[in-house]
Amino acid sequence: MGHRIGLISNVPPVVVPLVATLRDLGHEPVGWLTQRKPGAAELPVPSWGDISDRSAPEGVNLIFARSKDDVAPLWRGLDLDVVLCWGFGWKLPQDALDVPRLGSVNNHPALLPRHRGPYPIAWAFREGDEVLGSTWHRMDAEFDTGPILAQSSVPLEDTDCWIEEFGPKILQNTFAMLPRVFERLEAGDAGDPQSTDGVSWAGPFEEDYVTVDWSQTAREVHNQVRAWRHLFGAGDIEGPIAELEGERLKLLRTSLTDPGEGARRAECGDGPIWVVESEAAK
After folding, report:
1. Residue 251 sits in a domain of what CATH number?
2. What's the domain range around 75?
């Protein structure tokens, strides 16, 4: 039996394919709730564009919440069975989580309890993880701490540099878990409590991670570059910054193998790395 589903997200590239997947599974996405941010008119447009009638899937109510306290009353009119959250900044109150009949579920792009917090992909790169994880878990009063319903991962490759490139394999892997998620929800399964071992927090980076130290290994520098590219909206600190042939550069993309014409070779502690994209540092 199909369910009436509410979606919570600030990320259209997640919501659009998720709606299509849910419909293929026989469910009915009826509402997409997103944050209304003060001063949004003065903020830069995200790389994926604004959320509007142009980006919302046909047939789904588009809801802008002005505060987390408005979420519960906004949801109550939609007769929801399940809420799925993915890419959202507010810690929601319990009354909002309790609205859907079967529960509220979040997707976190990490193997919880590792990399709890707002920047899990950035920390996966920073710490040299071998995989990019994905966890569907019940939502509770804290960030990323609820019981796990489904979990899996995909390999993190040396060529994975930007979310638009490797994002599709994460989406495919994550969507494949949805039948199991719904099966457990329908059974009233509370989920598996998260382990108390291996807990880590994926918060903003510190200032001492801004500067590239060429005495590090090429892989460490490569991971540093990739990590900074996934620290979305984390404040005024930008990185990584490197001195290369007398220039002060912000590194945007590197390669562990020679990609050919246009790349700049730099020497690391254990051998070369190639700077593929960069810009003048501020």
Report:
1. 3.10.25.10
2. 4-186
Structural domain includes residue 104 = yes
Beta strand pairing status for 241-244 and 271-280? unpaired
Report in angstroms the alpha-carbon separations of 76 from 73, 81, 83, 88, 186: 5, 11, 12, 19, 20
Asked, for residue 165, whether it belongs to a domain, the answer is yes
Q: Which of 23-27, 37-41, 237-241, 243-247 has the lowest mean pLDDT?
A: 37-41
**Residue in the block written with tokens 């008119």:** 41
Task: Return d(Cα 158, Cα 276) in angstroms, integer.
Answer: 14
Residue 179 or 1, more confident: 179
In a domain, 62, yes or no: yes
Token readout for 134 is 């994905």
Which among 45, 39, 51 is positioned nearest to 14, based on CA atoms?
51
pTM of the model: 0.93
* CATH code at position 96: 3.40.50.170
- Position 214 pLDDT exceeds 60: yes
Q: Which residues lie closer than 8 Å to 221 by C-beta, 6 or more apart?
A: 212, 213, 214, 240, 254, 266, 268, 273
Position 172, amino acid? Q
Could you give the angle at the alpha carbon of 166 between the alpha carbons of 209 and 271, nearest 5°?
50
| Per-residue model confidence (pLDDT) at position 237 | 82
Answer whether 24's CB lies under 8 Å from 101's CB.
no
Instruction: Return the top range by mean pLDDT from 33-37, 55-59, 195-199.
Output: 195-199
Beta strands at 103-108 and 264-268: parallel, antiparallel or unpaired: unpaired
The pLDDT of residue 235 is: 65
Burial of 139 (C-beta count, 10 Å sphere; 0-12/13-18/19+)? buried
Average pLDDT over residues 127-149: 96
Domain count, the chain: 2
pLDDT at 282: 83
Residue 85 parent element (H or E): strand 82-85
d(CA 273, CA 275): 7
